[in-house]
């Protein structure tokens, strides 16, 4: 009699496993000889145990064989090599060695050595090895070490469980259930980060609640730190600068006040007693209503240095954000942070790093690099990207951010002459900085697939990979991610990668072509609202940025205008000074251009504007077709989900195009040369208004 072993219907893929799908590969036999056993020269440690566990589980899934532990001579060996940089690793595959067998010298059998100077290096080496197998790559020698020391996610997660600018559900952290209940998802989160080299996490919003400075909340935070530690991740906290007043019962939070300093010193001690490897503080001060040292007539350096003194005995650091801009109706927000921070160069304590957003305004779909990069040679600068898609389409638009990240990293600041890219400013190679870091505002949430849009997982992945090694190409990262997450079918994988590679440009075309910026809906930042004239602050309107009038469009940032261009090195400014020579992608960032002026494309500004808006919309349709061609090649649940989101993107692209064409036409007074709006301007305004209702 036969027993038919009925496997349960294969569960469709809900995306939870991210890029860590260790399903058996077709070419498993290629790897089985390596998967037999593991030995280690390292003493046991929590991180080493994680490495062993991950390797074991990974190989079991990918090859069907679970390696056994051996005291020496495993087919995979963790080998100590003090010459390898901290956190780096080398993988050596299949080196034939002479070994003695029964007194005879014979050629040794196959093995893989993962070499590192620390257990962390082994952990990263393990994930690299699994990545190769998962993509069914021939195993090859590789040596790799991170270019920046802190590769960090910043969560904008609030105490109430919401996420500022989060589009993938609620916060992962269940503050009310902690510390007693520990969601296993915290571990899954940590391992996803470790697999791409992320080694630091700030868990709470930079618009920080002072609750985190209380014993009750620190006990909760401690639990997360304990979960993260075996994955090589350090925990940081965002702090509210007014905590001495809010929870310390002091009358002031003045950083030069002795009682305030004593508060921070003792609070810091309390934190380290709970979390001995606590990373330090992340601070948003005097920005968008957050408290800060300027309230007391002190500088950002006074504030940062006071906290730096508190964490110094514990080797902690202070990450001070440069996202600061006072409302100034006659000024240019582009220049605000520069004007505040440039004069402070060289005055920060050694354990302070200043965190600067990639661009001078605010995470727009395309921005020139922030002029502070290249302008503060005596201060370590961290680069902050926004992985969550506040301005890049929420969770309904595909926007592969690696392209944006690379554009910034590869920009030349000329700090020490030609070749002084932003990447080199932040990896310390120009200034030998002690602290180096790249931060990304997380796009994770409680959605099953973590990021809302499945394709947005690629942004989390790309951030980690680029923070590890900014020289990797966007194509390579896309290909890696697709092969691990969607399909290993070469043709289908190419189609999926191409969707990612095209997506950024497409989004820019239908939302902010030619260097238009900050024209999105008020408050929640959904959709177009170029007509926004009034807000709490002038620099929160759209007209402040696009400056449309009967003559033309765009913000004059030359000497005749705000002169923001003068903040850059002359060699940088040079490329954007002359409108006739400015890359069209940046044109309206720096120039007010006449509607009928001829551009290098051969079209007038108005026609080029219509043309780009309209082609963006066509391109979304092409992305839809490309995705449709993947039916049957990718998991059906994932297929359907992304298909739906692309349809939403198509709907939104029509709204953007029509809003811009009709609104700006009221200034240009010219016929729409490409595209036919589907609605009237009044209808569109109503849709956008309704999205802003509570
Ligand atoms: O992009 C803006 C966001 C704010 C955010 C701020 C910041 C956390 O609209 O929501 O606040 O930047 O970076 O501090």
> How far do the termini sit from each other?
65 Å
Proper CATH architecture of the largest domain = Alpha-Beta Barrel
Number of helical runs?
20
Please compute the radius of gyration using only Cα atoms.
26 Å
What number is the mean pLDDT? Answer: 96
State the strand order across the main sheet.
9-10-11-12-13-14-15-16
Q: Which class of the largest domain in CATH terms? A: Alpha Beta
Bound molecules: 4-O-methyl-beta-D-glucopyranuronic acid
Helix content: 25-40%
Tell me how many strands there are.
Answer: 18
Q: Strand portion, in percent?
A: 5-15%
- Runs in which pLDDT lies below 50 for 5 or more consecutive residues are 1-10
Q: What class would the helix/strand composition place it in?
A: alpha/beta
Shape: globular
Count of separate structural domains = 3
CATH superfamily of the largest domain: Glycosidases
CATH topology of the largest domain, which one? TIM Barrel
Largest sheet: 8 strands, parallel, barrel
Features of the shown structure:
binds 4-O-methyl-beta-D-glucopyranuronic acid; globular; Chitobiase, domain 2; 20 helices; alpha/beta; 3 domains; TIM Barrel; six-stranded mixed β-sheet; Alpha-d-glucuronidase, C-terminal Domain; 694 residues; disordered N terminus
